[in-house]
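Title: [Solved] Cytochrome P450 3D structure

Original question kept below for reference.
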Amino acid sequence: MLSFILIIGALCLLFILYMRAENWRNREELYKTGFDTRSLWLKRLWPNRIVHPLPPALPGALPIIGHLHKGFTWSSNLFNFFKILSEDCVRQGGVTVLKLGPEIHYAITDPQDALTAAKSCLRRHYVFDFVKVWQGNSIGTSAGETWTRHRKLLNPAFSLPVIHGFLDVFNSQAKKLINEVEPFVGKGLFDHRPYFLKNNFETLCAGTFGIDAISEKQHEQYLQSAYKLIRLFKEKLFKVWLQIDFIYKLTGYKKKEDQLVKNLHSLTKAVLEQKRITKENEVETNTSGLKYKAFLDLLIDLSADGVFTEKEIREQTEIILTTGFETTSTQLTFTMLLLGAHPDVQEKLYQELLEVLGPERDLGKYDLNKLVYTNAVLMESLRVFPTVPVVLRCVDQDVKLKNYTMNAGTYCVIFPLIPNVSAKDKKGDQFRPERWLDDDSCSSQDFAGFGLGKRGCIGKTYAMIDMKVKLAHFIRRYRVRADMSQLQLSADFVLKPVSGHEISIERRHSPAA
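Solution (posted by the thread starter after getting help):
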């Protein structure tokens, strides 16, 4: 074990010495030309001078390399890393420090400090620069004026009138889902997640993209390529020597990355080609302007007006394709698990659905605001099992928290919800939707299920309405049972169940039966 630690330490030290040599060469270039040629990862090794005192650090830091020696363990089980870091952060009073070589990362679990950091720090963490080989300057990876302009242009595609126009799609897909799981009635436990994944992808294609669903083979290839590429990014983050280009190529990682990106881009290309064919065959309507167009219609029309380039269309489609179905399907997987383990909550939900909708009626736009407890169930599910378990940002200016000031030139890792998963001795860990109905308990500021601050999820309203429709159809037909005692979780950019998340279903009898 000692020899292993020494080898890792030596590699990290070699990396830092190599970068320092590069830094001196680039300083000479800066002196001669006035232009700073250092790459982003090189600049990270010389952060701004630490002016303000630091909070206590996560235990286990070594001189010079900090916590880098833990990289192997962390990259293989990122959820455990999040869990350890957030629990230690809670013990330290809500703020602690993680050191990756000379980089300072503030870890934050205190809700008030989390909101302050998210509102003050808008630029994404450098790990999102790794993702640019895949998603370019999409709204998920870009910063500054590019992000502001693109976000403003795309916001109308996720407005309430547009999403209300998808209700027929949401209802028909929900009914398709409950029919597909019908064979499992009374057959014991089964893994419901693949059915939600497939159904939500079809919903995304039919609604947001306005196309027929692509083949299952293409869909499966996309998912597997995405998972493999994300694993590559995780290794690159913690095994810092892989951030040196020639090592990345020498080890074969670059070749793997290129092939995976090619696979992912091929599906995006297929989606765009199918959409263009669909638009060519559409009958012209009297609708004018861009205010209430669905996502891909809006993108293509903006492209025709010269606002978006072909490359930008692909990049924006890529981010919605990546985030638009797995997040909602995974959250519904967790919601079913929680309802199965809490029959009292499930019964209360069922009674509200019967009162508002009856046993079989589709949801209309006027029903959505009446489903108050249904909304609370989804918010509570997102609190206990947040789809996106961390928010990663750059600290570009000094930011004052309650007890500390984050130094400019550092980074922050915001855990607004993770402690709720692990803090078993606290009331906050209980699955209790009523907390969202009590005026003095939780507020909208406490809810961070779709991120915090201005960079929150653009598709929040779409996701909530889609999940509400599917949940309403599912619970009105089936009684769900589950046992969470064996649940195992993993995380990359999304929190996921690994095992112990299976449910069983029984057909409900209608009140008239």
